[in-house]
């Protein structure tokens, strides 16, 4: 691990050295014609040279190659400060964090804006990645404050592809073979027989004669296919138009899982009156089908007896082997994982449409002023249906203490409508050496959600009290805002940006409803000064500084928590004279709930050398968040409830972002380039209303994480394990850290945290001649730790020999090292180093130019993804969800791809 860390530390130096070796000399540098790159910013665009905030712009040339099935897969590892944790479950959303987020328990998701329309959540899984033209990642408050309450955790702006003047047809297709890269190391059937003979000889009669690898039984090699076609051109010869369709089919590694996505996208860009009036009309429709295989089967595959066969012809549970109680015949213990998958079908159908109409009118009588209007909707319709075979273990249960084969048939549905509209006036003018841009606007957003669930409809007549159709219709959430921005530039050297937003949220009472947010940023283009302007070595140098304030109001299901509401009983009455009145109970509320606010500081440097053959950015940032929104236990009789949302404290986030782009070799027949990024981030809780909130529940009332002043959120809070002279943990032996002569909860301490100290990405691109291309993408994470709940729950005798239900269970091989007789879940022994180096993808392509015509090209490529991982962590993958608790995850597939890109 020491050598691995050293290699990562010297990577930036290696890149610089490599680029310098291959760079042309000062005399041979040929000045290229500079094209002003335009970057998408909040409510507008700006030349990249004029940016004052911390923004990473990624175009299609920067995207990850290979079999990319989700939009976030295009940019994973491509930007400093951006961490994307992708799920192995087909169709599930990734977790995206920009600079670690800025909240404790409220949402830490960045705002996603597609073609000017803010979407609900980070909903990238339903967007076809082939439709995306570019991303802009807004990181500092000076860039995001104009989005006010929605920009606290950063903003991701997505631009989709538009039409063109010439007719262009594209066909992209690939097929991927998905394989299981790794399994959890548990005992084989033969090994398990030896363990039972030693530790539970009285249960030896229960052993079977098989050697079943339950993980092999539930996982499979599967296939993913994707076909995308698009047509771009001018409708009626005048209106740029683009239309695309896509079909994705992913079977997934886990047996019975499946995800299908069909999308259609249209973009129309008419203009009138000599381009004084322009429209951009975009719309995306997607339909996704997901068969959600029971992921609890993955956990059960680690525990089910490997000496048993999958099938038993005498079993009443659909012919699958199951543990039963001899006296009653009722099922007990861990369920057969294959049966869990084959006898349960959880189907979800998800329909989504989002679209936006943008009108940009340059006033005829005052052409320096533009009127911009955006209006859009984001509509979602979800319906689910769960069916469980009655003749299965999952379908056998008790109702009113009567056990029988019932099965399950239940339904759920959800409807979400997110409406958004904004009106802007934009003024742009140049006065000699002064450039001025002013923006003023108003925005309206309304979020409507209705959902309902049914109980098990098969039990309606047997157990009507616990089975009913449960509609859930909460009041709409409404956001309104007034915003503005001023950009000043002087002599193409000195830049200043001031923005302001006044945000109103219906989540808060009238006294706290409105929040004021804004930012100031300044930049100095040092390279434009006379003493550097003619330099052939230093081609770009810009110093940036910014400060701003953003807000947060999203606290999950609590929409109108300041309302005083009552529940009226339909069965209890109070008699007053001859009149009976229904008894009402007050519900909990918090009328003092207010905005969570973050003040963020950023100091940045943009630089370029050798005509920008080497260019990069370096940022130092600090963010202080106060009035943290969190859902916490409340005091006796406080707010008339046990838990609820409160403003509870403050936290601080600080870090460094570094990004480098190096064109190491640039010749006619050979090009070699690198993109390297590094981020350091540290989040610390500064103040809490109640210091020491238990988090990370691991069963039996135990918690292994904490919210505590002076530590990172979800820091591990455990006992310090004592080891013998051979380095073996001594059971139930912990360090008496406070020296009081006994081991109590006062001896728990902070040992590591789930968040990485440092994350890195390295992309290598090579082109040879006009035909061959090669790309390779690496990612690294240092300082992140994982709680190995897989072993903590299972690697002890009491799990192997379960006396509660009189069964025997398999265990991870870690048991052979510890020989624990009971669970020692609070031990720091189970907090493992999760640092890793991953080779995410390798892609090799060959392009046939002019293969059936002058403008036609065909690219054939092969790719591999999730190729290699170097880590000390012994389980499937150290990249886990759930804040660092690993209780088994849906494994990310190792994929081998063959694809084509054809353009006509």
TrEMBL record:
The UniProt record lists the keyword Membrane: yes
Source taxon at top rank: Bacteria
Biological process per Gene Ontology, one example term: siderophore transmembrane transport
One term under GO cellular component: cell outer membrane
Protein topology in the membrane: Multi-pass membrane protein
Key words, A-Z: Cell outer membrane, Membrane, Receptor, Signal, TonB box, Transmembrane, Transmembrane beta strand, Transport
PROSITE patterns, sorted: TONB_DEPENDENT_REC_3
Record-stated family: Belongs to the TonB-dependent receptor family.
Name by which UniProt lists this protein: TonB-dependent receptor
């Amino acid at each position: 691990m020491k050598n691995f860390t050293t290699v990562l530390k010297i990577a930036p130096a290696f890149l610089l050295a490599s680029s310098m070796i291959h760079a042309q000399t000062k005399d041979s540098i040929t000045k290229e014609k500079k094209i002003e790159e335009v970057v998408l910013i909040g409510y507008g665009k700006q030349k990249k040279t004029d940016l004052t905030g911390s923004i990473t712009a990624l175009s299609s040339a920067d995207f990850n190659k290979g079999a990319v099935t989700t939009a976030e897969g295009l940019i994973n590892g491509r930007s400093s400060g951006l961490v994307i944790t992708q799920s192995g479950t087909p169709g599930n959303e990734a977790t995206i964090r920009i600079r670690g987020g800025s909240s404790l328990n409220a949402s830490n998701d960045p705002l996603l804006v597609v073609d000017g329309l803010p979407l609900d959540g980070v909903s990238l899984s339903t967007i076809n990645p082939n439709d995306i033209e570019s991303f802009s990642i807004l990181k500092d408050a000076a860039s995001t404050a104009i989005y006010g309450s929605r920009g606290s955790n950063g903003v991701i702006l997505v631009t989709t592809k538009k039409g063109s003047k010439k007719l262009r047809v594209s066909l992209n297709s690939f097929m991927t073979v998905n394989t299981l890269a790794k399994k959890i190391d548990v005992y084989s059937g033969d090994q398990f027989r030896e363990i039972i003979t030693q530790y539970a000889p009285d249960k030896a009669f229960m052993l079977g004669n098989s050697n079943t690898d339950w993980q092999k039984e539930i996982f499979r090699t599967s296939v993913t296919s994707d076909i995308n076609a698009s047509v771009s051109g001018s409708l009626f010869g005048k209106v740029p138009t683009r239309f695309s369709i896509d079909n994705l089919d992913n079977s997934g590694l886990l047996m019975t899982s499946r995800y299908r996505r069909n999308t259609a996208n249209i973009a129309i860009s008419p203009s009138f009156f000599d381009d004084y009036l322009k429209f951009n009309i975009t719309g995306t429709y997607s339909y996704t089908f997901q068969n959600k295989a029971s992921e609890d089967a993955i956990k059960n595959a680690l525990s089910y007896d490997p000496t048993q066969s999958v099938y038993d012809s005498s079993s009443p549970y659909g012919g699958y082997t199951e543990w039963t109680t001899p006296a009653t015949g009722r099922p007990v213990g861990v369920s057969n994982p294959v049966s869990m998958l084959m006898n349960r079908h959880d189907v979800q159908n998800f329909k989504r449409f989002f679209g936006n109409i943008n009108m940009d009118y340059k006033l005829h009588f005052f052409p320096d002023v533009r009127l911009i209007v955006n209006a859009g909707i984001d509509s979602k319709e979800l319906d689910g249906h769960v069916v469980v075979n009655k003749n299965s273990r999952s379908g056998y249960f008790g109702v009113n203490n009567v056990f029988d084969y019932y099965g399950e048939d239940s339904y759920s549905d959800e409807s979400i409508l997110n409406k958004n509209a904004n009106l802007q006036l934009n003024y742009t003018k140049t006065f000699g050496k002064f450039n001025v841009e002013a923006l003023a606007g108003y925005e309206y957003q309304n979020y409507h959600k209705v959902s309902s669930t049914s109980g098990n409809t098969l039990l309606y007549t047997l157990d009507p009290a616990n089975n009913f159709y449960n509609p859930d219709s909460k009041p709409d959430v409404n956001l309104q805002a007034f915003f503005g921005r001023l950009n000043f530039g002087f002599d193409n050297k000195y830049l200043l940006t001031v923005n302001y937003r006044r945000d109103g949220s219906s989540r808060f009472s009238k006294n706290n409803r409105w929040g004021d947010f804004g930012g100031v940023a300044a930049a100095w283009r040092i390279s434009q000064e006379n003493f550097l302007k003619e330099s052939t070595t230093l081609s770009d140098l810009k110093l940036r500084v910014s400060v701003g304030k953003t807000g947060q109001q999203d606290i999950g299901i609590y929409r109108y928590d300041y309302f005083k509401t009552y529940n009226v009983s339909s069965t209890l009455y109070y008699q007053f004279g001859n009149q009976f009145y229904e008894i009402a109970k007050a519900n909990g509320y918090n009328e003092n709930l207010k905005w969570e606010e973050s003040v963020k500081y950023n100091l940045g440097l943009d630089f370029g050398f050798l005509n920008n053959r080497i260019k990069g950015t370096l940022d130092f940032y600090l963010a202080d968040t106060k009035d943290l929104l969190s859902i916490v236990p409340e005091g006796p009789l406080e707010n008339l409830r046990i838990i609820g949302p409160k403003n509870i404290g403050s936290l601080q986030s600080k870090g460094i972002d570094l990004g480098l782009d190096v064109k190491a070799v640039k010749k006619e027949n050979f090009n070699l380039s690198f993109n390297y990024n590094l981020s350091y981030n540290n989040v610390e809780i500064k103040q809490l209303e109640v210091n020491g909130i238990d988090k990370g529940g691991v069963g039996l009332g135990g918690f292994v994480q904490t919210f505590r002043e002076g530590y990172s959120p979800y820091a591990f809070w455990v006992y310090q394990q004592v080891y013998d002279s051979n380095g073996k943990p001594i059971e139930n032996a912990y360090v008496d850290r406070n020296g009081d002569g006994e081991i109590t909860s006062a001896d728990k301490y902070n040992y590591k945290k789930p968040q990485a100290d440092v994350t890195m990405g390295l992309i290598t691109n090579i082109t040879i001649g006009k035909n061959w291309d090669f790309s390779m993408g690496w990612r690294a994470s240092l300082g992140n730790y994982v709680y190995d709940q897989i072993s903590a729950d299972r690697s002890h005798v009491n799990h192997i020999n379960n006396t509660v239900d009189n069964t025997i269970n398999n265990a991870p091989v870690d048991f052979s090292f510890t020989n624990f007789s009971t669970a020692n879940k609070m031990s720091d022994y189970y907090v493992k180093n999760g640092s890793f180096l991953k080779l995410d993808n390798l892609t090799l392509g060959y392009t046939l130019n002019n293969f059936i015509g002058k403008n036609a090209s065909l690219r054939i490529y092969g790719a591999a993804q999730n190729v290699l991982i170097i880590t000390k962590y012994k389980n499937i993958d150290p990249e886990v969800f759930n804040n660092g608790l690993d209780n088994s995850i849906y494994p990310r597939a190792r994929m081998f791809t063959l694809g084509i890109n054809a353009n006509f």
